Amino acid sequence: MKDTTITRESSFDAQCAKFGELLDLGKPVSAKVMWSAIHDESYARDLVINKRRPFYLKRLLENPPEVQSRHKPEHHHTNRELITSAASALIRWSKSGFTKVDAKILETRENACLSCPNMVDPERFIQKIIPSKTISNKIGERTGNHICDLCGCHIGKKIQLISESCPDKHPVKEGYTRWNEPKKR
Ligand code: SF4
């Protein structure tokens, strides 16, 4: 098994190479893709979730979203803040292995999203090109291509991953999220 672990010590170029390995590209991702993935968690997540869908992966790689930052990607070799930021944005995913939740947790999470005021239609191009199954009554397909307005993630993808958490607090249960899971510190 390939070592795709991204650590805080990895250089920016090493992270491009590691992220390319993680996506099974056979080459590093571009600095622009890496830069966007670092600063846009939903973009990074979409890249990984769609790594087995060549058509969508290619579109995502060709259309990295513009991100706002004080720093420019061409300064990355000397920019410690960028490297630290990159590591913290991606380390969780590379370690989790993108493990999926079981059917019970999936249903609980989905039920919470379906009754949540933060569930909205996709607006951004990147969000719109991500494939989603048509809405059906089947568990895991009931949110269609809706987005969580708080984190910008595709809900149908987000609720499947064990490493993910709901960004909103539970309406009545202190210390818990809307998914009825303890808040992550
Ligand atoms: S992830 Fe949480 S905040 Fe977002 S739509 Fe689902 S329940 Fe609402």
Strand percentage, roughly? under 5%
**Largest sheet: spatial strand order:** 1-2
Associated small molecules: iron/sulfur cluster
The ordered H/E elements are HHHHHHEHEH
Terminal Cα span: 31 Å
User: What portion of residues is helical?
Assistant: 40-55%
Structural class call reads: mainly alpha
Low-confidence stretches: 70-79
Largest sheet: 2 strands, antiparallel
Number of strands: 2
Total domains: 2
Radius of gyration, rounded? Answer: 17 Å
Overall 3D form: globular
Overall residue-averaged pLDDT value: 77
Give the count of helical stretches: 8
Structural account:
It contains 8 helices and 2 strands; from the N terminus they run ααααααβαβα. A two-stranded antiparallel ribbon has the order 1-2. The protein is mainly α. The model is unreliable at 70-79 (pLDDT under 50). The radius of gyration is 17 Å and the shape is globular. The chain is 41% helix and 2% strand. The chain has 2 domains: 12-96, no CATH class; 99-185, no CATH class. Residues 112-113, 116, 118-119, 148, 150, 155, 166-168, 178 line the site of iron/sulfur cluster (SF4). The site of iron/sulfur cluster (SF4) has 12 residues, from helix 6.
Quick summary of this structure?
The chain contains eight helices and two strands.
Notable characteristics:
185 residues; mainly alpha; two-stranded antiparallel ribbon; 8 helices; 2 strands; 41% helix; 2% strand; globular; binds iron/sulfur cluster
